[in-house]
Amino acid sequence: MKQKLSLYFVMGSVDCMKDPLAVLDEAIEGGITMFQFREKGKGALTGVAKYRLAEKLFERCLAHNIPFIVNDDVDLALALQADGIHVGQEDEAAERVRDRIGNKYLGVSVHNLTEVKKALAAHADYVGLGPIFPTVSKDDAKQACGLTMIEHIRAHEKHVPLVAIGGITEQTAEQVIKAGADGIAVISAICRAEHICEQTKRLYEIVMRTKQEGDR
Ligand SMILES: Cc1ncc(COP(=O)(O)OP(=O)(O)O)c(N)n1
Ligand SMILES: Cc1nc(C(=O)O)sc1CCOP(=O)(O)O
Ligand SMILES: [Mg+2]
């Protein structure tokens, strides 16, 4: 799991400045290790249109052996037979989601150590900690928790697979991994890049090099 979390790309049509399929293709070519379909926000697709887009993005991931995770929508994840689901503290309860999805991947958003322990008790496969830095991609994001929260959680839960999210860029990725995250989850660092493939390659290289330097 920790390897899969290394460069976790989160995206929906609203985040993209061009065709989401083209964005995903370039990100895959650049080396993403996991993908989350997060169709959310003003102008997001719903119903059949959402399903059709998810289906096409999933096909791309399947062809390249990239785990395809659905954000929030457990019914969609089950209908597509996706690889997993990501839920937050205000979504369907993690225990119930675990019951519904069997052994598919379950990711849970956390903001502190108490929530990490609860997520582990619900048999989450990984936790998503954020926002580490201020973000432009989530309207209802909490206050940034900074690198110290990664260090704090890692000091108390040495083995939990943890991906950091929120405002992470090429400039901050190294510090995030050094603080103890197993990977970075990003929207804008990839979606807003002028050259998506090259930018993704740079992020991948930073994460992998920093993990190797730390023997992880
Ligand atoms: C990897 C990852 N971590 C955290 C989140 C945030 O989930 P949530 O708090 O449920 O907020 P929404 O993304 O649903 O707006 C995430 N999606 N992915
Ligand atoms: C989807 C999401 N969840 C967050 C959390 O704090 O749980 S922050 C966030 C948005 C991440 O996008 P960007 O890389 O553009 O900052
Ligand atoms: Mg959610």
Automatic annotation (TrEMBL):
Domain annotation Thiamine phosphate synthase/TenI: ranges: 7-190
Cofactor comment text: Binds 1 Mg(2+) ion per subunit.
UniProt pathway: Cofactor biosynthesis; thiamine diphosphate biosynthesis; thiamine phosphate from 4-amino-2-methyl-5-diphosphomethylpyrimidine and 4-methyl-5-(2-phosphoethyl)-thiazole: step 1/1
Keyword check for Phosphoprotein: no
Binding site for 2-[(2R,5Z)-2-carboxy-4-methylthiazol-5(2H)-ylidene]ethyl phosphate: 135-137, 167, 187-188
Domain of life from the UniProt record: Bacteria
The protein's required cofactors: Mg(2+)
Catalytic reaction list: 2-[(2R,5Z)-2-carboxy-4-methylthiazol-5(2H)-ylidene]ethyl phosphate + 4-amino-2-methyl-5-(diphosphooxymethyl)pyrimidine + 2 H(+) = thiamine phosphate + CO2 + diphosphate; 2-(2-carboxy-4-methylthiazol-5-yl)ethyl phosphate + 4-amino-2-methyl-5-(diphosphooxymethyl)pyrimidine + 2 H(+) = thiamine phosphate + CO2 + diphosphate; 4-methyl-5-(2-phosphooxyethyl)-thiazole + 4-amino-2-methyl-5-(diphosphooxymethyl)pyrimidine + H(+) = thiamine phosphate + diphosphate
CDD domains named among the record's database cross-references: TMP_TenI (cd00564)
Residue numbers binding Mg(2+): 72, 91
InterPro entries: Aldolase_TIM, ThiamineP_synth_sf, ThiamineP_synth_TenI, TMP_synthase
Gene Ontology biological-process annotations: thiamine biosynthetic process; thiamine diphosphate biosynthetic process
Gene Ontology, cellular component aspect: cytoplasm
One Gene Ontology molecular-function label: magnesium ion binding
Transmembrane segments: none
EC number(s) from the headed UniProt entry: 2.5.1.3
Pfam families: TMP-TENI
Binding site for 4-amino-2-methyl-5-(diphosphooxymethyl)pyrimidine: 36-40, 71, 109, 138
Swiss-Prot/TrEMBL keywords: Magnesium, Metal-binding, Thiamine biosynthesis, Transferase
Function of the protein: Condenses 4-methyl-5-(beta-hydroxyethyl)thiazole monophosphate (THZ-P) and 2-methyl-4-amino-5-hydroxymethyl pyrimidine pyrophosphate (HMP-PP) to form thiamine monophosphate (TMP).
The family this protein is said to belong to: Belongs to the thiamine-phosphate synthase family.
Protein name, as recorded: Thiamine-phosphate synthase
Organism (species): Anoxybacillus tengchongensis
Species lineage: Bacteria, Bacillati, Bacillota, Bacilli, Bacillales
